[in-house]
Amino acid sequence: MKRLSQLPTCRIDPEKKVFITYRGKSYQGYEGDTVASLLYANGIRIFSRSLKYHRPRGLYSLDGECSNTTMAIDGIPNLRTETTPARHGMTVKAQNVVGSPEFDLLGIMDRFSRAMPAGFFYHMFHKPPSLWPLALKRIRKIAGLGTLRHDFVMQVRFDEIYPHTDLCVIGGGPAGMSTALAAADQGLQVILIEARPWLGGIFDYRPAKYLDGFSLHERAGVLSQRVTENKNIRVFLQTAVVGIYPDNQITAFQVGGRPDAYKERYVEIRAKSLVVATGCLERPLLFENNERPGVMQVGCAHRLARTWGILPGKNAVFCTGHDLGLEAAIDLFDLGMEVLCVADNREDGQDAELVAELKKRNIPFYRGWVAAKVKGKKAVKAVTISTVSGTRRRDIPCEVLVASAGLTPATGLLSIAQCKLSYDNHTGFFLPVNLPERVYASGRMLGFHHPLSIEISGRLAGLNAAAGCKETTNGLRKEVEEQLATLPGPPLGSKWVSPPGKGKKVFICFDEDATLQNIDQAFSVGFEMPELIKRFTAAGTGPGQGGIPGHNLPLYVGQSRLPADDPPSPTTVRPPMVPVLLATYAGKNLDMSKRTPVHDLQISSGGKMERVGGWRRARYFSPDKSIREEIEAVRTSVAILDASTLGKFRLHGPDALKALQRVYVGDMTNIAEGKVKYSAMCNDDGCLIDDGVVVQRGKNDYFFTTSTARAGGTIEWIRFHTRYDGWDFHLVNLTDAFGVINLAGPKAREVLERATDSDVSPEAFPYAGYRELLILNTIPVRVMRLGFVGELSFELHVPASYMITVWKILEETGKPWGIRNFGLEAQNILRMEKGHVIIGSESEQRTTLHDLGLGFLWHRNKPEAKTVGAAALKHTENQKGRLKLVGFEMEDSASAPPRDGSIIVDEKIRGYVCTARYSHTLNASVGMALVEDRLSSISERLAIFEDDCNGKLTYARVARMPFYDPEGARLKI
Amino acid sequence: MSLTITCPICGKRSGYEFRYGGEDKGPRPDEDELTPEKWFDYTHLNTCIAGMQKEWWCHRDGCGTWFKIYRDTRTIGEVPLPVEDKIKDA
Amino acid sequence: MVFKHEQLLGKSRFRSSYDAVIIGGGLHGLATAYYLAKDHGINNVAVIEKRYIGFGGAGRNTAIVRANQRTQENLPLYQEALKLWPLLTRELDFNLMFYNCGNLNLAHSDAAIKSLRLNVSSAQFHGIDSRLLDAKECKTLVPALDISDRPRYPIFGGMYHPPGGIVRHDAVVWGLARGCIKHGVHIHQNTEVTDIGVKNGKVEFIETTRGKIKTEKVLNAAGAYSAALAYQMLDIRMPISVLTIQAMVTQPLKPLMDHVVSSGAYHVYANQTLKGEIATGSHMDPWPNYTTQNTAYYIKHQAEALTELFPCLKGAKFMRIWGGLADMTPDMAPIIDGNDPVEGYFVDCGWGYFGFKSSAVTGKYMARFMATGQCPAILKPFTRQRFEKHRLMGETAALVEFSPNN
After folding, report:
1. Tens of pLDDT, residues C294-334
2. Which of A170, A273, A586, A865 is deepest in the core (most CB within 10 A)?
3. Per DSSP, what are the bridge partners of residue A402?
């Protein structure tokens, strides 16, 4: 097809050819084409088949308000070809067809549409019950639009940015540009967002008069240049706003251009003020077969010609309800298309000049006429037009029907922004009322039609937004308000909805194949509220988000069901305003986790790292997951563990002790100098949430540790539970300031001795002691003698910046004893052999301190402290029927340990296995379990039910804990 | 940032920086008074008001302060603390 | 094949007296009303709904059904619930579109495998089909899964529960409503209950925006508003936090996922609806609110999580996101009481995530409770008093985030 590329409005570059592959064949277009315009120029008319009835669908709005033009491009399904720029080398495929869009075997579905009324599925296929699974299979196959392969790999990159600004303007048409310029002149930083690849909006493609002999197109150029040159305005082109949230948080996605490294970019904007200037959509004209390929809206036909240089067809009938329709008919006629007639559903109110121009061209013009029906199976062959009352009819053979009932404001984003919309009788629009603070609307969406009115309304919004940002514009605002009042206001809008003598296949929603008949069916089963009708008929729940049915549905419900003076109410719109790739939302999807100071050393020593909360830690160090050597090193010689993730805190100030007493169940009043105090924190349910040690380093000055998981929440926990008290204390989180090394094993002392001059002999530094030492006379470390793994061990708290040094020193001094790393899994077994619990592993949400056998940690005689959890501990102290933690040993010493999570049963479930392992040290399978208290006494037999055991139980006996070194002698050497 | 909270120290910030701390139930009762009923009341029971609620928040990813605000649970909009409350809480 | 349209929702006369009044035209309310009429012959019943039936959680959940809960108090209830869908389909003569696709719950650590094993063992002990799969088996079931070590939480394995699936939530609402109407129950939409009248410790009447109704039995089944209602009208406070939970769907795709897949670590569930949309969700902002607002934060988070689990979904598009309310209790199990502390006052709330899957079966037993005054054994564990007695149910092992108590 010869393209009208010489038109000044045309956006294709005839010098730059683009080739794409569609259905295996190569098609040529130009840079600037969308996939849809390229295909249309090559004679493609049927773009897809509809969801339910597989009706042929073609170009309709050209702005993506329905899924008519969705295709699969380079493996990505459901893309709207009308808004997708054509790029050289693209592979485009039709979807939801068996065969081709032109010859779709499932096109037969359309014949059954009468047998598939709204709610059809609720009454079908369930009798007999055996029918349903078979029907399901068929339904699934037929349903769905595009195909996404399970092994599809997205090859391109995505990006994300988070700009802040004073004002965000949505819509780069005349109103939006005027808004941006007015606000920028007041000194505001402005972001202007436009969905199309260029600014200009409703002015962009129109040669109609502006002022002083300029065309609207030229005016768009002037405004767009001013905007681009203004340093206060940042323009985002090809950027679709998809969400607006409270406090003017705006989300959008930008399509990457040629030089960009990304395909699409997620944009999240925070703006002080927001102006929505998204203009209008055309309200679809409802009549029989109103979505046949060849039926298109005014803007679609006009822009095809003006923007892409493609005449929609040889001849056309226009059925419209607004002056843009008349203007387009005249312009397309002048460009060489035969305009057979123009029918206008308005009896009067048309622009007299336009009517005169039609007459000048001998184009028949019918006032009060509409389209009633389109004939032709796969394309428009003829249209039946009729008077609005249906009394007179005429058939006109034609190729294209340009159809539009009227205009409707593009309020989708306002609705998403939770603005209240109210029906306006004059314009027939849903207009915003009570806009949220610092949200404004401007331009055509308020009903303005005159070019100057549109611009000035935009200007006013810009000044209002500036005032919202506390720039003083009062004088100017008043002036502009007055100016707007002198300009033409919103014209009377068309209210036309139902076709005369309702046809059969009048589609109110294209995406879901919902007809007016379906809506009537919803009425007849008792649904009268638009939202229920939406649910029942699915109208407006498809990819187009109500773009097509959005305004007609409430109007139709209003006209059919509501009392005459009840205004219709709009249906809801939900984000995203247009469908967005998950890849775009995911953006860069950066992965963040914390590393301990010796992270790299752990890896170079062969550590297999694993995520632990926000951290990465070494689970084990053996190549084959066997950790026997790690355990043996701890039990017989010496090994080191990186425990840097432990929470570490300083608590100091006059009321520090009170705070400790409030959150720890133990008595913190007399922590001896040079000693650690082990204690626990409970929540108010008396459940163990944390354990750790506390040392007193000076008067009212404490250092304490928490579990890794709890480190992040400790400060807020302590402050929460003291929030009413007004106590004077300070908390410092030292978790990242210190690394922690657990040096464990019977040879640990020898290793430490060689690294420090301090006396670390059992007499000078006994079990449960605390010392501050210098490593190699230089590095200050805080050392605790603890025994989580059941051996002599030193926990060294080392300034983070010295961690690597100290670690290497210990590796050096430990060489004679073959010092080695051990990881979390070894620690898990070692501590289990000692009967030490890990919170979350041996406890759950409802496990109290008593249940764990740790009730002794609770100091009951400090009621004045109002200790968190104390009341619950008192209430539950002697409660029967609770799950208690016990140790167990398998009856058959040769049997493997039950897997963690196996349950303990008799006729009911009585508990479950928390941790069970084969212990090399003990040469037995042992474990810990939470079981009902009546099964918790020593030697009680536990029947263990493992998954997939086929009823074959295994048996264990409750055993005394700790399994290993019950006297604790090894800790104290 | 649908929800924003005004921290008395750091100012207005995204709600995701904060942690909700429950309805304002008043100071911790004396331990001896905490019968199971009273304990349940203080620890778990909520009024669940659909409307204005006085409640605790902590600026977790900021200064760490606990403070009270009024918030409308129907809109999640924060509303300024009435003057008399400011005086009382000061 | 053309069928006649019959009224799903009749218009009922507003009476000044009913034998029982159900507050809330959601699933639990409708189911209770249905069974009151059908099983117990009590059909002088009104369902009072402030908006329209199915407006709340009933129409906002993602319709997943399953019986692989953690505790033996819960399992029998959900087990029966699962068996009820086909029965109800027949009984109501309304296709509830039970799609028995099975559920796969992924584990991303050894600890998660352990906790799934507890669920699986408990299910098997109760004769419920549920089993543990390794990562490869998961992949066979759901080929779109990435079982490499690329995701930040690599897949260790999963719990596969074949009897589960999805049910069309609107169908259940409408089917039950139709069943109610057939049995003479009155459904009053656009009607708000404004007060519950109590005299001498007994329910006497309720006050509505359309007038007073005399009744001796009231069920508070107002979903997320139950707790607020109990407090405002009866001064009963509940251990409940009301949060907005969000869900979303992609544009329709040809069959890609044949099972419901969920993951604790990613806090995600996803399944493909009969229409072809991938329905996914589960995030709650941890602060109480009644907004049902969705957030920018969440849709982005969900895209990040989903595209790690299912890299191919990078090529799918999100089409719509919405929010509903969940009334969460401290132990993730519901609260069911009757005649306590007010005679004639019944409450069925606190379902959190589980309101949909439990609806029909709970209605059945709730109806028995209301008809006989005796709490059926299957509902007994759910009394509000359990908290006071320090008997949390244990349906969740982890500390819940929305309570300041943790």
Report:
1. 999 999 999 999 999 999 999 999 999 999 999 999 999 99
2. A170
3. A296, A318
Nearest to B89 by CA among B8, B28, B6, B4: B8
A640/A651 same-domain check: no
A661 and A607 share a domain? no
The number of helix segments (H) and strand segments (E) in chain A equals 23, 49
Same domain, A815 and A884: no
Residue B34 near chain A (CB below 8 Å): yes
Q: At what angle do helices A656-663 and A714-721 cross, to 10 degrees?
A: 100
Residue A391 CB contacts under 8 Å (≥ 6 apart), including other chains? none
Instruction: For residue A22, list its beta bridge partners.
Output: A25, A92
Contact of C383 with chain B, judged by CB distance below 8 Å, is answered with: no
- Give the model's confidence band at A272: pLDDT under 50 very low, under 70 low, under 90 confident, else very high: very high
- Residues A696 and A759 reside in one and the same domain: no
State which of A371, A387, A404 marks the end of a domain: A404
A83 assigned to some structural domain: yes
Q: Report CA C27 to chain centroid distance, whole Å.
A: 8
pLDDT averaged over chain C?
Answer: 95
pLDDT digits over A788-802, tens only? 999 999 999 999 999
What DSSP state is assigned to residue A23? T
Contact A245 B1 (CB under 8 A): yes
Give the CATH number for residue A729: 3.30.70.1400
Is C254–A147 a contact, with Cβ atoms under 8 angstroms apart?
A: yes
Residues 192-231 of C with CB under 8 A from A: none
* Domains by residue range for chain C, with CATH: 20-61+169-239+331-388 (3.50.50.60), 103-162+241-328 (3.30.9.10)
Is 50 exceeded by the pLDDT of residue A35? Answer: yes
Residue of A904, A916, A914 whose CA lies nearest to A955: A904
For A720, which of B4, B58, B76 is closest by C-beta distance?
B58
Burial (CB count <10 Å: 0-12, 13-18, 19+), residue A87: middle
Write the pLDDT tens digit of every residue in C196-213. 999 999 999 999 999 999
CA A631/CA C290 separation, integer angstroms: 53
Can you read off the two tokens belonging to residue A156?
């391109």
pLDDT at C98 over 50: yes
- Least Cα distance to A41 among A339, A307, A302, A304 occurs for A304
**A615 in any annotated domain:** yes
Residue among C124, C294, C394 whose CB faces A844 most closely: C394
Do B76 and C238 lie within an 8 Å CB cutoff? Answer: no
- pLDDT > 90 fraction of chain A, expressed in percent and rounded: 84
Under an 8 A CB cutoff, do C285 and B3 touch? yes
Count how many pairs of residues, chain A against chain C, have C-beta atoms within 8 Å.
294
A746 lies in the same domain as A716: no
Asked if C330 contacts C322 with a C-beta cutoff of 8 angstroms, the reply is no
Are residues A725 and B4, on separate chains, in Cβ contact within 8 Å? no
* Amino acid letter for position C157: G
3-state helix, strand, coil in chain C (%, to 5): 35, 25, 40
* CA separation for the pair A347, A277 (Å, rounded): 30
Q: Is the pLDDT of residue A564 over 50?
A: yes
* Predicted ipTM beyond 0.90: yes
Q: Do B20 and C330 touch (CB under 8 A)?
A: no
Q: Which residue has the tokens 């950066």?
A: A590
Give the end of a domain, one of A830, A847, A864.
Answer: A830
| 3 state DSSP class of A482 | helix
C103 residue type, one letter: N
Nearest by CB to residue B15, choosing from C287, C388, C389, is C287
| Domain range enclosing A663 | 647-733
Does residue A73 lie within any of the structural domains? Answer: yes
CA distance A893 to A954: 12
